[in-house]
Design brief:
Number of helices: 7
Shape: globular
Oligomer: single chain
Largest sheet: 5 strands, mixed
Strand content: 5-15%
Radius of gyration: 21 Å
Order of helices and strands: HHHEHHEEHEHE
Number of domains: 1
Number of strands: 5
GO molecular function, one term: diguanylate cyclase activity
Pfam families: GGDEF
CATH topology: Alpha-Beta Plaits
Distance between the termini: 57 Å
Organism: Streptomyces lasalocidi (Streptomyces lasaliensis)
InterPro entries: Diguanylate_Cyclase (IPR050469), GGDEF_dom (IPR000160), Nucleotide_cyclase (IPR029787), Rev_trsase/Diguanyl_cyclase (IPR043128)
Structural class: alpha+beta
Protein name: GGDEF domain-containing protein
């Protein structure tokens, strides 16, 4: 039997393997935000729910402050650059967790706090996020952070924990102080999304 004849049965299998790789690549790309490279809301949710099985999980919500002002002053290209920079810094600062862009200038992360230093690490992250964009020093603003330990609210799902982080994040934004705000213990007040100022949608 010739070498060519021996290889012929493998050709269909190779074709299917290439097709499967291409399909997986397309699906993965579809689950990534095209501007920031972070997971989209749906993809983030699936991965975040898996991490929440760990009682050490921490849920973080981040919102870029004065984003409309950045767009109005420097243009939408500068706004996109700022979002991409925030996304990269969030991904680096929450290494080992999962980070997603929920839409517009809002991001979320779930990380495992293995050594109990989440508060200190988020303080550092807030300062890093406030640094000017490396390639455009005139483009900079703060980022409000709210966070919650899943262990403080056993039995609550990702949606409820995100609402708690949302409340904490907007409390930090209203206070005007820099630095992340931890969700307080007690009753969930409900989402404050309806009171948010308008902002540009997802890119």
């Amino acid at each position: 039997m010739s070498t060519l004849a021996a290889l012929l049965p493998a050709v269909p299998a190779l074709g299917w393997a290439v097709h499967a790789w291409w399909l997986h690549s397309r699906l993965t790309t579809a689950r990534r935000d095209p501007l920031t490279g972070l997971w989209t809301r749906e993809a983030f949710t699936r991965r975040a729910r898996r991490l929440l099985r760990d009682p050490r999980a921490v849920v973080v919500l981040a919102d870029v402050d004065h984003f409309k002002q950045i767009n109005d002053t420097h243009g939408h290209a500068a706004g996109d650059l700022l979002l991409a920079t925030v996304a990269a810094r969030l991904a680096h600062g929450t290494h080992g967790g999962v980070v997603g862009r929920l839409g517009g200038d809002e991001f979320a992360a779930v990380v495992i706090d293995r050594d109990g230093t989440a508060a200190e690490r988020l303080d550092v992250l807030a300062r890093v996020l406030a640094r000017p964009v490396d390639t455009a020093p005139q483009v900079h603003t703060t980022v409000s952070l709210g966070w919650v330990r899943a262990a403080d609210y056993r039995g609550e799902d990702l949606s409820a924990l995100l609402r708690r982080a949302d409340e904490a994040m907007y409390a930090a934004k209203r206070s005007g102080r820099s630095g992340p705000r931890r969700a307080r213990l007690g009753r969930l007040l409900g989402s404050v999304a309806g009171r948010r100022p308008g902002r540009r949608g997802a890119a």
